[in-house]
Structure formats: C-alpha cells, structure tokens
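Q: What changes when thiamine diphosphate is included in the input?
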Amino acid sequence: MSSAAEAPAAVAERRYIDALNEGMATALEEDERVVVIGIDVGAGGGIFRVTKGLYERFGPERVIDAPISEMGYVGAAVGAAMTGLRPIVEIMFMDFVGVCLDPILNQAAKLRYMTAGALEIPVVFRMQTGAGKAAGAQHSQSLEAWFAHVPGLKVVLPATVADARDLMLAAVRDPNPVVFIENRRLYGSKGPLPPPDAEPLPLGKARIARGGEQVTVLTWGQMLRTCLAAAEEGAASLEVIDLRSLAPLDLETVLASVRRTGRLLIVHEAVQDFGAGAELAARVGEELFDELRTPVRRLGTPAVPMPFSPDLERGLLPNSKAVAAAAEALVAEG
Amino acid sequence: MSSAAEAPAAVAERRYIDALNEGMATALEEDERVVVIGIDVGAGGGIFRVTKGLYERFGPERVIDAPISEMGYVGAAVGAAMTGLRPIVEIMFMDFVGVCLDPILNQAAKLRYMTAGALEIPVVFRMQTGAGKAAGAQHSQSLEAWFAHVPGLKVVLPATVADARDLMLAAVRDPNPVVFIENRRLYGSKGPLPPPDAEPLPLGKARIARGGEQVTVLTWGQMLRTCLAAAEEGAASLEVIDLRSLAPLDLETVLASVRRTGRLLIVHEAVQDFGAGAELAARVGEELFDELRTPVRRLGTPAVPMPFSPDLERGLLPNSKAVAAAAEALVAEG
Amino acid sequence: MALIRAFETRVAELYRDGEIPGFVHTSLGQEAVAAGVGAALEDGDYVATTHRGHGHCLARGMEVEGMMAELFARGAGICHGKGGSMHVADPSRGVLGANAIVGASLPLAVGAGLSSKQLRQGRVAVAFFGEGAVNQGAFHEAVNLAAIWSLPVLLVCENNIYAEFSDSRTLTRVPAVVERCAAYGVAAAAVDGNDAAAVHRLAAEAAERCRGGDGPFLIEAETYRWHGHYEGDSQPYKPDEEAAGWRARDPLEVAAARLLEAGAASAEELEALREEAAARVEAAIERARTLPAPDPEEAYADVFGS
Amino acid sequence: MALIRAFETRVAELYRDGEIPGFVHTSLGQEAVAAGVGAALEDGDYVATTHRGHGHCLARGMEVEGMMAELFARGAGICHGKGGSMHVADPSRGVLGANAIVGASLPLAVGAGLSSKQLRQGRVAVAFFGEGAVNQGAFHEAVNLAAIWSLPVLLVCENNIYAEFSDSRTLTRVPAVVERCAAYGVAAAAVDGNDAAAVHRLAAEAAERCRGGDGPFLIEAETYRWHGHYEGDSQPYKPDEEAAGWRARDPLEVAAARLLEAGAASAEELEALREEAAARVEAAIERARTLPAPDPEEAYADVFGS
Ligand SMILES: Cc1ncc(C[n+]2csc(CCOP(=O)(O)OP(=O)(O)O)c2C)c(N)n1
Ligand SMILES: Cc1ncc(C[n+]2csc(CCOP(=O)(O)OP(=O)(O)O)c2C)c(N)n1
Ligand SMILES: [Mg+2]
Ligand SMILES: [Mg+2]
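A: The predicted holo structure follows.
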C-alpha cells in the first residue's frame, strides 16, 4: 500500500491524458537518455495533446517531430534504443502498424535474443487505439493479441488514470521493448492520481479492480469501465480484474479469482475471434478444468471491420448491459 | 467422391511444390485476369522454384517480377484486384509482412466492407513459412493467428499435395482476399495428386486425415505430418484433423470429432501463446464443456524467437514423440 | 468548384454542430486541384484518394446526396454508413475511395494502372496525396513501380504546405516534390493549385500522356489548406500573414476573374452557379437529416462476397 | 580483405558440404568495400548490415573464431548459436548485426546516429545495404530522416548489380543510386567498389564529414557478387562475359598490384598475409568443429532482460 492511499485527502483527480503526460515528463526528467519521437508530438503537442508542453519543457532534441515515415522513425527508435537512448516512440493509431511493423516484429522483439543478450533494446512503442468514436475501420482496431503473440515484446494496456502514469514510467524504465496501448476513449476520463510511489509499479501485475463472488470478469483497457459499470448495474456479484498487461501475463491472479468464483467471463474491445481473450480462455480452461462451474465465455467485437456509423459501432462493441447479461447467464447456468 | 479416387491407378505421386505450380498454372490458364506478382517469381522461377516455368509459359505480362518493394507491389496487387485483375501476389517469407501489412490489414480486408460491397477484391497473398530449416528468427515465423484475427481475410494452409493445388485454385477463384500460407518444409514432400475435380474444393472444409477413437488431434500445415506420424508411433488411437483453413473455420468437423473422442489436442508450429490454437481451445472448451473428458491441450512452439541452431530449433518445435506423449497423457488423465 | 466549396463549407459547420460524427478533413482552399484534375479525366478513369477526399469525389461526379448521407452515417449513404468521410467511395464512377492511411492511395492507383494496362481498359489511374505522404515509403515504392511497369498512373500531389500541425518544409530537405521525381525517372511538373484552368491544362496533357503509354506523370499542385488539419483544429502553427495571403488567392475568385475577363460568363451566371451549388448541398443535407441510421444487420453485411 | 576472402571461400565450401546450416550469402568479390569502409572507421562507430554481412563484421574486427562458431551453430558462437550467418553481431565492437530483412539496416543506423548525436558520442553510424534495398520504403524514409535530423550516418550501398536473381537495372529507371540522393538533399559519391584504397579514401572523408556534423553521406560502391545470391544458387541469370570481366578485376589483385607498384609490400609479404588469413580461418573451423551445440537451455535465455 502506498502512503498516498493512506492519505486520500492528498489525491488529486486528473485526466488519463494528463497522467500519461506526467509519466513521460517524469521519465524525461529523470533520465537524459529518454526521448520522445513521433508525428507532431513536439511543437504541436500531439494530435490528441498527450505530449502537450513536453517540447517547450525539454526542447526539440528530446521531443522530436518526425515526418510521416513510421517505418523510418520507429526503426530509428529501435536503433537508438540499441545504442544508448531510451525512446518513447508514438504510433498515432495502432492501425498504422500496417506501415511500420518490421522494426517491432523483427527487430525490437528479436535482436536481444539473436545476439544472446548483447543488445539491450529499451524502447516504448506508444500506440493509441479505441473504437467508439466513429473513426472507421482503419482507425479503430485493437490488435493487442498480435503483439502478445510475439515473444520478446511486453504488452501493456493501462485502464486507469494512475496506471497511465505508473505503467508509462515502468515501461520506460524497463530494459525491453514495450508495446504501450492507450485507449482514446479513456483520454478524457478522470480518476485519482496519487503522488508517485517510491516503489515503481512492476509490469505484469493484474489488479482486482472490484471484489465479487459469483463471476470473475477479466478485462483490460477501455472495457474496464464497462465491466465495472456492469458490476454496478447487474444482478450478479462480479469480481472485475484489470489485467493491465498481456505480456507478462499474470495468470496467477486470474486463476486465484476463478478458483473462488468458478466462473469466468472475458471482455475485450478487440475482435473476439483469435483475440487475446482466446488465450486466457484456453489457459483457464486447461488449468481449472475441474473447478470451473460453467464454460469460460468471451465477449468481444464480432468479426467485422468496424463500421463508421456510430449506431452500428455501438451495436457491435460490448456494453455494460451485455456484460451484465452474460454474467447473469453464467450464474444461471451452473 | 471424385472419380479419380475411384480409379487410384491414375493418381500420380507429385511434390507439393509442383502441385502449387500446377494450381497457379491452371488458374493462369483458365482466367486471363489472373496474374502472378512477386520478387523473382518471373524469369527466376521463384526463390524456391514454386513459379518455375510460368514466366516462360504465360509471359512477363502475366508473371510479373517486382523490385524489393513489398508495400508497393502488394498494395498494387490489391488495387489491381479492385479493378479487374485477380492477382496472386507472393510475400517471399511470411515474416516480411512486417514491411507490407497495410495493404492486407487495412485495404484488402476492409474495403469491400467499407464500400458496402461495391468493391470486390479477389487477391491471393501467397506467403511461405516454416521453421526447422535454421533460417533464424526473422525467417521462421508462423503468424496465421494474426490474419485469422482480421475480419475480411480468408486464411488457408494447405498441408497435402492435393490441397496445395486444389486450395490454390479455390483461393484464386474466391472473390475475397485469401492469405495462402505455404510451408517450406512441405515443398519437397510427395503425395498423390489426382486429376483435378470438376467440383472445386470449397474453402473452409476441414478433413479427417486419419480416423481414431481416443484423442482428436487438430492441426494444420506442416504439423499434419508430425501428427500423422504420432498416430502411427504412439499408443493412443488418434483422430487427426487437418483444419485446412482458419477462416472460414470449420468448427463443425472439429466438434463432431471431439464429441466422439472426448479429448482434444491442438498442435501447431506457431508460438503457442496467443496462437490460433487458443481460439480453437476456447471454442471447443465452451461448446463441449460437458462432453470433454479432459482439458483441451495445446502443443505449439514455446514463447521464444526461433533460434538459428538446428539443435535448439528441433528442441522447440513440436515433434511426433511429443504429440504422442501428450495424447497418451490425455488418455491417462480421464 | 462551387459545389466543392459549398459542400465543404457546410460539412465544416455540420461537424462543428455535432451533426456529422467521426473525423472530418475538408479541402477548403484546395478546390481548384480537384476540379482541374477531375475535369481532365474520362469516364471510367480510376481515382484513389486520401482522408481529404471529398472534393476529388465530387469532381468525379459522385452524388452529393449519397455522399452527404454517408457523412451523416445514414443507411442510404453511398457506403451504407460504413465508410464515412474518410472512406467515401463509388467504384461505379472509378472512385476507389478516400483512404485514412497516409500514402495508401499510391500503391492502389498503381494497381489500378496495372489493370488498365493489362486488360487494355484505356483508363488512367489517379492517385491523390498530400506532400506529407511523400515521406512515406509507399510513395517511393509506388512511384518506382509505376515507372518500371510504365503504367498509366497520374500522381497528383496536393502540396498544401502542412501535414497535420507540421510545416512540411521542415520535414524534408527537398520540399519541391517535382524535384524528388528525378529519382524515379518520372516526368513531373508543378502548377498553381489555386488556378483550376492551369491545373486542368496540365492534367489533361498528363492524362493524355498516360493514355498514350508514356507511363506515369506527377503533378505537384501548390495550394493551401484553409481550415485546420481536421475540423476543430485551431491551427496555432500557421502564420497569419501566410494564411491571409492564400485566402486572398481564393481559387473560386481566381477562376471567376478569369471567366469574367474572358467574357465566358457573367457575374450573374457565376452567382447563379454558386447558388445552385449551395441549393444542391442544402437539399442533400435536408434529405440526410431525415434518413434513418443503417439497419443493424448492415453491420454484418459485406465482410465477404460470394 | 585477405581474411574476408579466406573466410567466405571456406564458408561457401563448408555450406556446400553441409557443415554450416541455414542460409548463407557470401560477399566474395565485394571484399574491398568492407575493407575500405571498415578501415575508415574508428572504435565505437556503429555498423548495421545485411544478410551479406560477414565481410563488414570481419572488417570491424569481429573475431573469426566467434563468427565461425556462430555459423556452425555452436554454443560458443558469438551469438551463442542463436543468430547464425544472417544475424552475426557484436555490439561491443559497434556491430549491431547482420539483418535478414532487406532495408532494415537503414532505420537502425539512423537510430544509432541519433544516439550518437544526442548523447554526444562522436560516433559515425554506418548502414550497409545493397542496391536492391534502395527500392524499399525503409531506404526512402531513413535517408530523409538522417538528412533532416542531420545525423552522422554513413550510407554505404554496395551496388553489385543483382538483387537475388534479378538485374537491378531492370527494376528502376535510375540505377545509379547516387542520382537518387538528390531527392533527399543528401550528398553522395560513387566509387570503384573493387578498389579498396579508393573506397577507403572516400569513406574516410565521408566519415569525417559525418563526425563534423555535416549530416549523412551516401557512398555507392560499384562491385560484383561472384557467387550466387545464396550459396547453392547456380546463377543462370548472369551473362558469362559480365561475370568473367568482374572476376578479372579481383579486388584482392587490384590492391596487391597497387601495393606492389608502390613498393609498399613485396609479393612474399602479400602471400604471407594470405596464408596467415587462411590459417586463421582454418584454425577457427577446426575449433568450431569440435565445439558442442548450444545447451538446450540456451533456447530460453535472452528473450527479455531484467
Ligand atoms: C500511415 C499514417 N500515418 C499517419 C497518419 C495520420 N495523419 C492523417 S493525415 C496526416 C497528414 C497528411 O499530410 P498530407 O499528406 O500533406 O495531406 P493533407 O492533410 O495536407 O491533405 C497524418 C499524419 C495516417 N492517417 N496514416
Ligand atoms: C523485406 C525483404 N524482402 C525480401 C527479402 C528476400 N531477399 C533477401 S536478399 C534479397 C536481395 C537483396 O538485394 P540487394 O539489396 O541488392 O543485396 P545483395 O544480395 O545484392 O547483397 C532479397 C530480395 C528479404 N530478406 N527481406
Ligand atoms: Mg499537406
Ligand atoms: Mg545487390
């Protein structure tokens, strides 16, 4: 427990976006080797204003505007990470990995291994995702499962204001490539931001966001709010786990909860088919075969590209009603 | 049943690679709109000789050599597919999608949907994969799970000589983008190649490659041979299913088999964590919760980049002994 | 041009007022490029464009009603509400669509050029893109492919100086896109992108070259984006004088002055034209407002064809 | 050069005989580029290279023993048997590694240049790449970045005419890579890539420029690949005369002739040098043969650092 939690009076309400900004500012402050690279992250303050003020504070050498050349500047960030810098590099929308995957997939994830540890690659790939804003099929994808499937990458998805800052700091301090996934719909969300802990938050620890008895609801990112709302609204008693990172994977916390509840519902914004929820369902199904009261169920987006229409989009994304209903159905089932 | 199967005398033994070649040749022959595009697919006959002779037979306008510009020529293939051609475009190693993912992920998979069906995109993305050849971490990845996670793509993985030809033809004739995954280790493998059927093989039909009683072994691609060998070598009676395609997914055939055996082992060459096997485990675990005698188990590559050393590589890839042992363990378990 | 101006002006307002969802990027100030190129093309010619594509679509005859309904995310939209501003398309008119990935229009147009050549369609394939896209690998690869395959591809770069919040002149040492074409052996010419007649002349010539089998040609149209990168961007990064200078060279005024001078149209005729355009747009808006959202089943349609 | 020649010659044989697994791409015929550039660099300078990188590694002082053991996939290999021919690396010598993705060396070197500039390391970052890689988007983006950020990046293109089975002159309208640099405002010069002294002179000058803060420089070294793209490729696509002509301009002979002419070395001294190189390589082979495969646990090490 942090001392901040013991003195809640001191805890300020901040926006998720400000917490990200603070995390980066602290990282830039505490380590000269940290640089921020991306399109319009500098003078422009970021297309979503996440890097606002960093350019003014740390200068153009530390907060570096790049042309629309993701393959080039993401690759450069990886090369820089091998040679002394600790870049935080922004891919404006996760969907744009389509133009700059190689440096992540084939370079950052593999070169430490291929050189038997001689190369260290401390790079943070910030990417923003988040459907629900009528941004269309090319600006709404959640592809975290892809990165979790690539050995050598850590995959982090902060869902709360405090985690936005603390996982950012943990990611920058980590000596490995970290895919850091921000959800656009969380940017404006508010929550408590205690003063930073002396003990940094380790990557790979899930969090029980809400205790409950009947169904474990496992989620991450933007869907945490949905699941917490479902816990409030629904009839079943839900234990909501914020997984926080897919790699490392904190299966222990999940298993411990499901052992108690006997039921697991996995909720994510990504397409359900071949999504990250499948791995968790498979793992829990295998580990707790005799303890599960009901089948593990998943709730993700159906297998269609994300339509532009807000109505259609809303109809596809899991919402709190659907989560509550699915949980109640599990309880009814066994 | 095809008439060829009734007259086995006529069935020739051919190599997988020749069957692929024959599939492409037939496609080029039967439809003027079919073109083959890739690096050295033309005059050079393909780096693995898969396109050998096509250039001589169909000319440089139909069998088109491209510079090392995957983003450009794969994107061009997608644009060509929208406007009248039916390209078969080669990505030499699946790992190279790192430099040309956008046309597959954001264009081919989505533009039919985004235009409400006004654009038809009949393109085949041929990609070769296959660890076990000491090709190193950047030339050994199996990323089929990624493509299966993208709505709008079909994902096909021929495991036999006959399927190499027949699924190729089906892929070219399909009006949708098809990711067609060839395994390098299969290229030299031999098997019967009956005369082409009048009725084309539909995409999305799994095949019982071998009947059995105790454990359903579900696999695809190169691992089919491994699983069939395990069935011969091991003590348990294995029913081996060759899934053939991940999208469309023939879950029916899988469920029917597991309903009988009560046990499922999924085997693939890809990294196990967040691999395609997870989706199948999750689906079967959910659908057959009450019928499974034992947990669904998976056997894939551990979560490490593929090392160069053939010894290390051999140690990581699932082999027939490991498959047989896993199956026997399942039988022992319940 | 009048139609594009009217359309974009109203779209900006509707977006501000929350009537249009998602992201919207207008082409106000750049209408002459769309109009000049659009008029130089023939039926069947292909167009692949960008996030800032409304003008190009209208210039190729796409229906105002269908487009507006699409921006309103209606089921009767030209893409049934599944595309939106960044993805309006009408393949029946050769428009392969707006595209939200910077640089993606280029390889797609190369592919369309390949179809045209291979299937002897006699069509020109146009890629519109911004000067910011020139720094993308896709530009480099696509231009080279169009060159070596000698395809009928017309590359139209709208150099509006800015890429999002950045002055593109700071993001390359060679801001003149025409100069970058020598690297591919591709002929190129710059043109005043606020002068529709000049754009049209050059584009017509270039399209003819393409159709004649001379391979690709690149047009760099120098122009200016009046509004922010997206609607809602207050553009603190633009010098006032620069913006004012370009506003003073309004492409519609440039064209009007020329027409009046040449006696090709009277002030009244021009005014009537503008009014007619505004009326068409207004009618499309009225209609769009009354249309229903897409049927929920629409979300599941068109993933695959059969 | 003698060392590279000896190394590559034996590697080709060992691969043919099945002693070395995987894919192998030798740089026989291109030794002067590696030697000339390698000698122009200083301790600490960074090198990122390609699938054809043995020579560049040796020229930067990487140990023959460790490299050979790596190619043999031994646990004592410089990458513990996890990298292999396409991934030999030694960051302690600045060598960030061979790389099996065409074009990948360029952005990595740009990043190394960024570190050098930012952290005031005073180091030059070299990217080796083939002329085939010039058609990759990564080339385009990386060169532009190096230019606008004015980084100490030395771009060394080994133009050996072929990319795999293709004559690269058929895959671009502008085969001279130096000519493509104008698009980025990057200074460039071509050099006889079979003349180590000429390469060295140019590289030394260019490296000094880089170190002096003048930004990137591109060297196009014109040379020839004697062997196939990979070992085992019988190269039916190469005209005999062309191959013979280049073989006649053996970079080792060119250098030897010059040294003899200048009286800088005697024939005996040169012969001794070659013998010594051959002996070093032979010793490395003997050693590699006796070494064990990696410990099975090695497969699980080094995925993540802590
Ligand atoms: C691959 C990719 N990177 C970044 C973006 C975000 N983005 C959208 S438009 C834009 C600027 C484009 O500038 P330019 O090409 O000059 O076109 P303009 O907006 O000026 O018309 C950027 C960076 C994107 N959509 N796709
Ligand atoms: C992205 C990517 N595309 C294709 C390949 C396959 N490939 C390996 S080497 C090579 C040819 C490279 O030619 P060049 O750059 O001239 O180098 P050279 O082999 O002549 O040294 C190709 C196409 C690859 N490794 N990576
Ligand atoms: Mg612009
Ligand atoms: Mg070459």
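Observations recorded in class: The interface with chain C takes residues 135-141, 144, 147-148, 170-174, 179-186 of chain D (CB under 8 Å).
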